[in-house]
Design a protein that fits this description.
This protein is of the alpha+beta class. It folds into two domains: 73 residues, Glutaredoxin; 124 residues, Glutathione S-transferase Yfyf (Class Pi), Chain A, domain 2. The chain is 50% helix and 7% strand. Strands 2-1-3-4 form a four-stranded mixed β-sheet, with helices on one face. α1 crosses α6 and α4 runs antiparallel to α5. The longest helix is centred in the middle third of the chain and has 40 residues.
Length: 228
């Protein structure tokens, strides 16, 4: 059985989970609290980050982009990259945008402040620091600019990178879904982005996210709703 070592609200883990589901590949999931840096996990990935994927042949891969590109070549029957050269380049560009700029400015900040910081404090036996409300406020302001850019894309294209659903949509949805878990997106201001996201949430491959939970932090009221 293929194995994915992941953390449920890690956007990079979610990116790989969606890719595996779109390709209809069976895999088991090993929940990993990556901040604990346990020996068994760092032996798989010395950097200590999720996701880590172990294929049927025993190959061990780390880094979400390396994993999805491996999956695209190893299992080409159901493609998640566009067929044409320029389409693939655009999909990779947007994947990079979300995995770097959006992650550093939005999704990883929200995840760190609302979940990981507290988990690390509890793991070390120290008093929980609590979220930085000023930083979260600044992050939400920055989120507006990202949402405006996504709206610009979906107003001009069927999917983010062009006519067809691709790794660009998978990556964007992975990051946005983490922010949406906490209810930090004002969807009423971005109707076109909301419609795009509803189309992704309606895909059977997305529904595995609906059962993801963080202890003591329930998801937003609309998190599991397809029409919200």
């Amino acid at each position: 059985m293929r194995v994915l070592h992941h953390y449920p609200l890690c956007p990079f883990s979610r990116k790989v989970r969606l890719c595996l589901a779109e390709k209809k590949l069976d895999f088991s999931q090993e929940l990993t609290n990556f901040w604990e840096k346990k020996n068994y996990f760092t032996s798989l990935n010395p950097l200590g980050y999720v996701p880590v994927f172990v294929d049927l042949n025993g190959s061990v891969l780390a880094d979400s982009t390396a994993i999805v590109e491996y999956l695209e070549e190893a299992y080409p029957d159901r493609k998640v990259y566009p067929d044409d050269l320029l389409g693939r380049a655009e999909a990779r560009r947007l994947m990079c945008w979300f995995d770097n700029k959006f992650a550093q400015e939005i999704s990883l900040v929200i995840l760190w402040e609302k979940v990981i910081k507290r988990a690390i404090s509890q793991n070390s036996g120290q008093t929980c620091a609590g979220p930085d409300s000023n930083l979260i406020r600044q992050t939400k302001n920055t989120l507006v600019h990202h949402m405006e850019y996504i709206a610009w894309l979906v107003d001009r294209r069927n999917w983010l990178a062009g006519d067809y659903f691709s790794i660009a949509d998978i990556t964007a949805a992975a990051h946005i879904s983490v922010v949406d878990y906490f209810g930090d997106i004002n969807w009423e201001k971005f109707e076109s982005v909301k419609n795009w996201f509803m189309r992704i949430k309606s895909r059977p491959t997305y529904r595995g996210f609906f059962s993801d939970r963080v202890p003591s932090i329930p998801p937003s009221a609309h998190y599991c709703e397809l029409d919200f």
